[in-house]
Amino acid sequence: MQRKPAFVFVLMVCLAQFAAGQKAPAKGSYLMYVGTYTGPESKGIYAFRFDPSSGKAAPLGLAAESVNPSFLAVEPQQRFLYAVNEVSDYKGEKSGGVSSFSIDRKTGKLTFLNEVASRGAGPCYIALDKTGKYVLVANYDSGSVAVFPVLADGRLGESSALVQHSGHGPNAERQEGPHAHEIQVTPDNRFAVVADLGLDELLVYRFDLARGTLTPNDPPFAVVEPGAGARHFVFHPDGKHVYAINEMGGNVRGLSYDAGKGALRGQQLISTLPRDFKGHNDSAEIAVSADGKFLYASNRGPDDIAVFAIDSGKETLTLVEHVPTKGKTPRNFVIDPSGQYLLAANQESNNIVIFRIDAKTGRLTDTSQVIDAPSPVCIVFVAAE
Question: Residue 284 CA to chain centroid, in angstroms?
Fold first, then answer.
């Protein structure tokens, strides 16, 4: 769901124009794309060149104009990028949009391919299945999820599945109805899991790769605490555990995962907030390190990242530290492909702050690298050529 911050932002994108004959990047560098909420300062998706050897990002400017391209996803072969257009009125329909782009991995430029209706209002999350044949979208305002086939040229076809959630949670203001906030396929590509903030549920669907359809699993969902507001989730690399961050509850729920049955069972519940914090908070993003040793969670209240160590036997969490993100409203963060850095996207201060990750302790150290970015909402990486 789009928040509407007051933007105060100066980004000199004209200093970094895309040009033919641009020098090839150093070996091992990445293109970094940032999805934004558009407005007076932002025009769409912005690109940067990220060097993991130095932890620095160089601006490449506006990669593609698009309306509210809040969340992004890249297909497995990194030829195409997809974005939700987080609006609630799409060509007269109560829907948002989903856009497809081809990627120029030399320059970072995105070329628009096509756009389709998301089949629900306020799409806020997008992902691909493991084969890259389908795009899956969560529509926050409508409380629905949809699946779209990816055509041979990267364009999106008309939806192959639409599932409308129903019900509500105990918070009359935030949970008056369903609010699908994330959809992801399981590691084996057999199921799709949806976090619904309005229902306090993680719903599980059987995913048919041949037809691109979703059918309710048995059991059909796992519940989180009433009023907690399930927002995002992440699978542990072992494929046997899931961690869900609850936006309104300010906590992480650990769950075991039975891959054979597609069943989730609740285990540990742990706060993401500093012990002495008082005030309003909306927890936001969650990620696990590639080695499965550490978990990170962002808080939009104290504006920090909570760092947890993961017990290698039980996969339970122990707090390590809280690290301020040096900005306002860390809606999203990401661990870079090398695993050396965590990049925190501070939506309301219009910047991305880069931290170095200690591989042994999981702790974060500020690198003093701050990237200007207008209302950043999502960061994805593509290997550069």
Answer: 9
